[in-house]
Amino acid sequence: MLETDTLPEAPVVNPEDSASVPADPLQLVRQAWQDVLGIDAAPLDTGFFEAGGNSMLLVMLSDELSEQTGRELEVAELFRHDTVRAQARLLDPSYEPEAPAPVAAAAGRGRLLGSARRGRADSGPEQAEGSAAR
Asked: pLDDT tens for residues 90-130?
């Protein structure tokens, strides 16, 4: 074998250095979710349990992210930071991914609730049409 055909030796990694922040924490967390949940595309702003996770899978996610980053992540931390975006910020507090686009439905719902409340206030003690007492 010619000397030019040899691969350079892999650098020796100090375990303490392996706790460094990943180049793209958002992508790292997203890939970990996809692996653990067995999905093709992990949502950025949906909670882990809403995306199909359970407590056992959260433990597996903690193990996966700890292995990938060299940093011991507590399951409770991941529970409190339950979206891909929040977990990326957990791994790198200085990381600021692009903010999610505002959800139009939430704004519309606020207008609907406001008009419903105004309608009830105008109509007195009568119940709004179409709503049933529960």
From this structure: 998 776 655 555 555 445 555 555 555 555 555 555 544 44
0.85 exceeded by the pTM? no
The one-letter code for the residue type at 22 is: P
Q: For residue 126, give both structure tokens.
A: 């009568």
Give the whole-angstrom CA distance, residue 64 versus residue 31: 10
Alpha helices, DSSP H only, in the chain?
A: 25-37, 55-69, 75-80, 84-91, 104-123
Of residues 118 and 35, more confidence is placed in 35
Contacts of 133 (CB under 8 A, 6+ apart): 127
Sign of the dihedral defined by the CA atoms of residues 72, 35, 46, 18, in that order: positive
